[in-house]
Amino acid sequence: MFAKILHGQFGLKEMFWKYGIWGLFIQAFIMYLLRIFLIHKLQGLTLIQYYKTVFTFINMDNAMLFLTITYLTLLAFLTFYSIILVMGIWRSSNEYDKSIWLRHIARIFILIAVFLAYKVVL
Question: Which of 71, 81, 114, 115 is least surrounded, with the fewest CB atoms within 10 Å of its CB?
Fold first, then answer.
């Protein structure tokens, strides 16, 4: 599936709405929920400050460790997916013959959508 997205083998409409907007929205929503749980557990500290000062292996907080590992894993997947998605939409829009305007609008909006997804989760 990722190979088809990367090579832009779907139509521009399907790539943009199904994999672009909805795919990014679902991932950003899940990561936003994890971010809320992390912020609640961090109590005003950043993630790095928490692990440098509060976290100890003797009294390990398993929930905090699980949330951090899950959040960082999903962040890595979002980065991987965003790169594949932008490249795929770029290639799919090259094949789009109906309107040159829609071709460029899709490119601009997917870059904005990726930016907003990262703004929400970071």
Answer: 115
